[in-house]
Design brief:
The complex is a heterodimer of chains A (370) and B (299). Chain A has 370 residues and is α+β, with helices and mostly antiparallel strands. Chain A has 8 helices and 20 strands. In chain A, the strands form 4 sheets. In chain A, strands 6-7-8-3-9-10 form a 6-stranded mixed beta sheet, with helices on both faces. Chain A starts with 10 loop residues before the first strand and ends with a strand. Chain B is mainly α. Chain B has a single domain, classed as MetI-like (MetI-like fold, Orthogonal Bundle). The radius of gyration of chain B is 25 Å and the shape is globular. The C terminus of chain B is likely disordered. The chains are: A alpha+beta (370), B mainly alpha (299). Chains A and B meet through strand 6 and helix 2 of A and helix 9 and helix 10 of B. The complex binds adenosine-5'-triphosphate and magnesium ion (MG). The site of adenosine-5'-triphosphate has 12 residues of chain A, from strand 2 and helix 1.
Chain lengths: 370, 299
Amino acid sequence: MTETIAAGTPFAVSVRDVNMVFDGVHAVRDATFDLERGRFLTILGPSGSGKTTLLRMIAGFGKPTSGEVFINGLAVGSVPPHRRSIGMVFQKLALFPHMTAAENVAFPLRMRRFDARTIPDRVQRYLDLVKLGRLGDRRIHELSGGQQQRVAIARALVFEPDLLLLDEPLAALDRKLREEMQLEFRRIQRELDVTTINVTHDQREALVVSDEIIVMDHGRIQQKARPEATYRQPNNAFVANFIGVTNFIEGTVASVDGERIAFERAGFAGRTGNGFRPTAGASARGALRAEQIRIAGGREALGDVDTVVDGTVTDAIFEGERVVYEVAVADLGEATLRVFDHDPVAHSQHDVGSAVALGWNVKDVLVFGD
Amino acid sequence: MDALEAIAAAVWPRSFSAAVPWLMLLPAVVLVGLLVLGLWDMADGSFRTLDTATFLPSDDYSLANYHRAFTERLFFTVASRSLIGSLIVTAITLFLAFPYSYVMVRTRSAALRKFLLIALFLPFFIGQVVRAYGWLIILGSQGMVNEALGLVGVSPIRLLYNYPAVLFGLVQYMLPFAVLMLAPALTAIPEEMESAAGSLGANWVRTFLHVVLPLAKPGFIGAGLVVLTLSLTDFAIPAILGGGSQDFIANAIYDQFFRTSDQGMGATLALLLVAVGSMMVGVVFALFGAGTLAMGRSK
Ligand SMILES: Nc1ncnc2c1ncn2[C@@H]1O[C@H](COP(=O)(O)OP(=O)(O)OP(=O)(O)O)[C@@H](O)[C@H]1O
Ligand SMILES: [Mg+2]
C-alpha cells in the first residue's frame, strides 16, 4: 500500500477504496474521494447509510476493513485518534459534565501539552469566537442547547486542528436554532479557514453550508458535487429523490434523439440524466421537481410550456410561503404529482377535487434507468 | 369498576391521599425502629460489667468496658487488623473490579458479556461459608495448590490461616459486589465521551484519569463504601481462612457474646464497630459529598 499520495498535495483528506464491514453489515463500500484544504464538505444520506462510520474512520475510531485514509497526503491507518490533528463535534456533543465550559475548551490544550501560560488566553479567544465570552465559568448543564453546541465547537477548534469533523451535532436542535447554527458553522469555518467535514441527513443544511456534498446510500457514495450540481444534475434517481421534492414518472422509452428521450406515454419526454442512453423499448423513469411544474385552472393559463397534462387536485397543503398540491394525472397512468405553487396571489385557488392543468418543460425532466 | 372505585373512595377518601407516601415509608420506619430499640438495649448493656462470680451483668453502670476496649492490647490488635484489612481489601477490590466492569459494559461481544455476568453471579448462589470452605480445599496443606507444587518438588507451603489468606478471601468475596455497583456507573458514561477525549488528544491513560474516573466517581464511592463496611464487619472469612488466628472485630464480638458470655463487652465492641463504620461513611460523604452517590434531585 502506498504510504503517501504526493508531497505537497492540496488535499486535506483523501479516502481510497475504503470499506467497513461489521460482522455481516457492509456499512461503507469502496469509498473514494478527495477534499481540498479549507473546504466545507457535507456527507448527506438517509439513516444507516454509513455516514457516521465513514466519519469515524477518518477520525481514527475504527480501522477500515480495507482501503486507506490519507490526511495531508499521509496514510493514517496506524495513527490513533489522539495523535491525529482532528477536532470532532459529536452527535450528542459529548461535553464533559464535570467541567465548566472553559475547562472543556481547555481540555484539548492540556492533553496536547500546550504551554500552560497561554491556555487561558486562548480559551477566552475561542469562547469569544463562538460568542460565549462571559459564560466560561458555567457548568455544562447550566447552558442552553445552543450554547452547549458552541462550547463543543470551541473545544473542537481551540487546538487548531487540520480537520474539523461534525457528526450531526445540530440534529437535536429546533429548526430555528438549527438554521442559526448552520450559518454560524459557516461563518466560523470561513473565519478560520479550517477544512470541515459535516455529516447530516438534512438536505437543506447540506445545500446551505457546503462547498461540496457527498450523497451516500447503502454505504456507497452516490455523488460528490457542488450543491448546485447535486441539485440540478443528480447522478441517479436516488440522489434526485433524496434532495428536493421529486416526482418520478415510469414508462417505456419510445425513441431517443440525442439528449431527448421520448416515452410511449402521449407527449411525455425528458432529457438524459447521468449520460443514460436507453434503446427504444427499455423501461426508464423521468424525474421532475415539484417546483418545476406549473399549475393553473386551465391549459391556456399555463403559458409557454413543452408538456401539458390535465389532472385533479387530491390534496392541497398550505405551508406558509407556498402551497403543495397533489394532483392525480390520468394520462400518466393515474400518477400523483406533487406541485409547488409559490405564487401568493394564486394561493388556495385550487380546491381539492377541482380540475387543473399542469405544465413543464422537457429539459426539466431527467431520465434515469431503473 | 365504578362500584369498586366507590368502595375504595369510602374506605380511603381522596383527602387521605397525601398520607400515601408516608404509609409507604412505614415498613422501613418499623425496621429502623426495631434496630434503634436493639441498639438502645446494647447501649444499656455496654455500661454493665460482667460479674465473674455470678456470670450476670452488674446492676450499676460504669465505663469499665470502654476502658478495656481502648486499653487492652488484644482489642487494639483486632481493631487495627480489621480496619487496615478492610482498607486494603477495598483498594484491591476496586482496582480489580474496574477493568472487570469496564470490559463487561463496553465489550461488543454479547457472549463475553453474558459469560462475565454469569461468572459474577455464580458466587452469590454458593454462599460465603461454602466458598470459604472451598478455599480450604484448594489452599490447605494437602490442598490442590500444594499438591501441584509437590509435583514440581516444592515442599508444602502454609497458604492458610494467615493475614494474606483472609484478605485474599475477602477480595474474592467482595469483587461481585463492587462490580455490580460499578457497572451501572460505567454504563451511564456515554462511549462518545471517551471517543471525544481521544479526538481531543488524550491517550487511554489520560482518558481514564480525566474523564472516566471523575464521571464514575459515584460508582467508585458506592462500591468502596459497600466493600469497606462489609469487609470491616465480616465474620465467616476471618473465622474460616484465619483459623482463629486472624480475628476481625465481628469474631471478637462473637467470642464475647458466645464464648466468654460477656454481654457487656460484646455490646461495647459492637457499638464501637457501628461508630467506626458510621464515621468512615461520614468521612467519605464529607470528602466527596453525598451527592456523589447520585442521590437527591438532579438539577
Ligand atoms: N459498531 C457497529 N457494529 C455493527 N454494525 C454497525 C456498527 N456501527 C454501525 N453499524 C451499522 O452500519 C450501518 C451504517 O451505520 P452508520 O452509523 O454509519 O449510519 P449513519 O449514516 O450515520 O446513520 P444515522 O443517520 O442514523 O446516524 C448501519 O446499518 C449500522 O447498523
Ligand atoms: Mg450517524
